Recover the amino acids of this structure.
């Protein structure tokens, strides 16, 4: 596995809130992986991370365990932790499953969602549009992530949610990077507007189709980017 040098990719970071320290460290590292600050193959140097995050090794190692269980990092014997890399086949297969899970979530949500839940998702949608308008991708993506999770939660199926969250954690960084291309990002925003319309209409078949296509579009963007990287 190709390893990148953490010291070259990690910018200065503010101290982590001491409340719920392990959870805070986990969130900070997860965000850094999703947003591409820590790229696939980066070796996670414990000493350097402890210095940058101003924490001891205990919460850092707890964070490593959590992120390892999510598939975001690999814990290698005698080598420490490395940000996980996915092959083209891994990416394709994971997105295929996620498309099915997203689609099922949307279909069930249309049958079970409350008016209040729809209103909350609609409010998030407008917040997301505002973030897109000011080209704030981290804010946009955080709200986008909430919307997809709210739709899944509205399906009211704990087994589906557990599977969804586990699978989705592995491809968050890929979904985030799929918006680096402005045209692709604009297309994703239009797709979300269509999803909201289908949800408000309680059209389960339509929302399922839209969500499945949304994930297929993401997959095609991610694979195209991967091919460009490999050919460079």
């Amino acid at each position: 596995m190709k390893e990148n040098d953490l010291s070259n990719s990690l910018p200065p970071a503010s101290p982590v809130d001491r409340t719920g320290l392990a959870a805070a460290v986990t969130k900070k590292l997860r965000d850094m992986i999703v947003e591409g600050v820590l790229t696939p193959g980066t070796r996670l140097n414990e000493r350097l991370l402890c210095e940058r995050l101003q924490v001891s090794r205990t919460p850092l190692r707890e964070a490593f365990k959590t992120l390892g269980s999510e598939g975001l990092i690999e814990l290698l014997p005698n080598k420490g932790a490395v940000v996980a890399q996915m092959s083209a086949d891994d990416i394709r297969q994971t997105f295929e499953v996620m498309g099915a899970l997203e689609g099922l979530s949307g279909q069930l949500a249309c049958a079970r969602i409350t008016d209040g839940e729809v209103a909350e998702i609609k409010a998030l949608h407008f917040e997301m549009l505002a973030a897109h308008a000011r080209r704030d991708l981290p804010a946009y993506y955080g709200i986008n992530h909430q919307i997809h999770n709210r739709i899944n939660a509205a399906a009211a199926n704990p087994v589906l949610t557990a599977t969804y969250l586990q699978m989705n954690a592995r491809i968050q960084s890929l979904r985030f990077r799929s918006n680096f291309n402005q045209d692709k990002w604009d297309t994703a925003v239009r797709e979300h507007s269509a999803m909201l319309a289908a949800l408000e209409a309680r059209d389960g078949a339509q929302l399922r189709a839209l969500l499945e296509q949304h994930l297929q579009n993401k997959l095609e963007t991610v694979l195209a980017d991967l091919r460009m990287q490999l050919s460079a």
About this structure: Residues 204-231 form the longest helix (28 residues). Strands lie at 43-44, 73-76, 80-83. Residues 6-83 form a domain with the Arc Repressor Mutant, subunit A fold (CATH 1.10.10.10). The chain has a mean pLDDT of 91.
